[in-house]
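Homework help thread (please don't just give me the answer)

Our assignment gives two proteins as sequence + structure token strings and asks us to describe the second one. The first is just a warm-up. Here they are:
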Amino acid sequence: MPVANRSGYYATRSTSTEAFKTFIPHPLPPDPPLQLDADHYDLLEKANRALGRLDGVTILLPDTSLFLYFYVRKEALLSSQIEGTQSSFSDLLLHESEEVPGVPLDDVEEVSSYVAAMNYGLERLRGGFPLSSRLIREIHGILLATGRGSDKTPGEFRRSQNWIGGSRPGNAEFVPPPPDEVQNCIGTLEKFLHNDPVRTPTLIKAALAHVQFETIHPFLDGNGRLGRLLITFLLCAEGALSEPLLYLSLYFKTNRFEYYDQLQRVRVEGDWEGWLRFFLTGVYETAEQAASAAKRILQLFDRDRRRIEGLGRVAVSILRVHQLLQGRPILAIADAVERLGLSKPTIASCMAHLGELGIVHELTGRRRGRLFVYDEYLSILSEGTEPLR
């Protein structure tokens, strides 16, 4: 097994039946320092500019909370899909509307817990709590509160050896630090997050910290999801984004084999520069895509509003339903009645008009308990979220 002196070292441990090598990472930043070339600096500048444009989109939005609501759920869905859940965007929205999703409940509960963990972490950071090992444990407790992994000591660093790939540490693809080293490794990572021993630019810090967290693998379950959450928390805590509008897991999911390969190359070869190039490309591409999606959604809302206004006197109630659909792109008639205070026949008539315009269609085929979906809107929100098969 090669020794990656730049990124860490191997230590031998043993069970009652075999010896195996665990990898213990060196503290960040890398030593020798990163060797950044012109391509790195160009990518760093492009990624920072793209983040700035994405952050600027919030100024144009009539309702930032609306986009935030769905973009947070998109990141949660994508990150969970990397770990194997089969939920779709529609499944998550159906679950949150107390409708029955088309996948096992554990899948959507896992995504829903990710949303809760992100919201909790951001609220704590905005309240002045530092990004720290304590906060990481608190977030992990929420991430694994229900569903798969809830029996894997949520909120507690592991006290036993874990591994990645293989059936045991002796034949694993990668074995993280032994449990007695976890606290020290997390402690040095926490210092790095707070610019000890040196100040590090935010995007580079986020890139390095993500690899380091995944390498430490401090929990028995949920490390991948929490490691990706760490990126969002850092970008928001350091002001690179005012809101968590970047769903970077789309890039990791689309390029998942290279993603895992790049993580392993840092451990085995100390190739921090290769990982940084991959990461910055992802930030740039995803920020551009997220900003473009926001603008397309605004154009869609404006186009459909003008089409509804062309209906004449009946448009007043239909516009209210259209406004509600922007926050609930899958909507039941009963829900619309309750939220808008309009009669059931009025809502049904509005949905019929929206259906004739091609803005919504009915999902269930039932006469009662009908659900309507804002097709083109949900299509934009769902881009890239098809489950892995």
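The one we have to describe:
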Amino acid sequence: MHDVIAAVATGGKVPCAIGILRLSGEGCARVADKVFSLDCGLSLTDAPNRKLLLGKLRDRQGRLIDQAMAVISRAPHSYTGEDTVELQCHGSPAVLAAGLEALFAAGARQALPGEFTKRAFLNGQLDLTQAEAVVDLIDAESADAAANAAGQLGGALLARIDPVYQELTDLCSHFHAVLDYPDEDIEDFGIEELAETLRRALAALEQMLSTFAQGRHLKHGVKAVLLGRPNAGKSSLLNALAGFERVIVTEIAGTTRDTVEEPVRIGRVLLRLTDTAGIREASDQIEALGVARSEAAAREAELAIFVCDASEPLNEEDRRAMEAAKAAPRHLAVLNKSDLPPCVCESDLPFGTVISLSAKSGENLDALKQTLEAWFADGAVCDGSILTNARQFGAITRAAEAIRCAQSALQGGMTPDAVLTDAEAAMQALGEVTGRTVREDITNRIFERFCVGK
């Protein structure tokens, strides 16, 4: 990590107000001095720490390409823990590209995806939970997801894992002391005390694991599907929830022939809402494929919304769609077209939750939104304590299982070394979450998810 890396830290692909060129590594100020001159006459090498200064950016031919600002943050008080320089330019992609090319000619190299944050992790500025929170914050699609990622970046998840890790460390060190120095006057460990330590550790881990389902919804959204017979109003309902004409709507039954997905925000809930072809006996091969995809989408969904045309009597197509909807973990029914004389009432539908509305006029649409928000967002405290990362979930699951094995060994009267082995396995798994024991290949794979410049 002794070389100087550089990258465009903002989008860089489209014009914007501000664009940032970022450098990190020992000697990065000397590299920047070759392409950037301060108006005050100082070099960046001698510039005061963390102070924005005006200057001029030149390309590799020495031509002036922008008037910009520069700031240097010296090690160890920087994002990466190394000397860093940021050149804050106007956001022309041409200016940023020319400036970056000049920095490469001056001795920097292109930063790899996530290399700035990887250096922050390797230099002890961030633990692995905080590093992974950076990319979650960048990718956040809702305010709640951003708030939870910001909490994890602030160390909220580490604060929950670290006490468990420390208790297991104390437990293992006590075991080792007793086993390795039997002739020393070391207080033996009591079975009840050990059992209580393991119980507390398991309870803490299980509580963390219990938040993962909510965390998946927070990070990726709720996989939801609209089901019903042709012309029931599924596409109209998707358009009403999305707030714009996402799907073509006509009076012709079977207009939607394929699945159409749209992310829809309903209050604090993000739905990955899929409109489907109407479920019925298909009249041709194309429609048959659409119906098959509809039923496949229903099997994969976490939420199914059965849409019924309440102005017409129920038929076999409705019943087929209802059965598909009821297979989802969460499901409800919508009596659509409430603006027309009704032929179907709530008691005719085998659902615990039935909402009557008009997708066309928007009448009672808020009742559906309130129900969905209550199901998926009520009580959510997005302070960083919600587990959203599948890798972390897997590691904590292994830690919890190792502690259960330790408990079984203890209750079965096995020798202390058996308990010690399981407790150390739990520590190893927790270390993978925070980065204490993570392998290099896992580290590389984690930071490959990042964008260049971060």
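TA reply:
I won't write it for you, but here's a hint about the kind of observation we're looking for: Confidence is low (pLDDT under 50) at residues 252-258.
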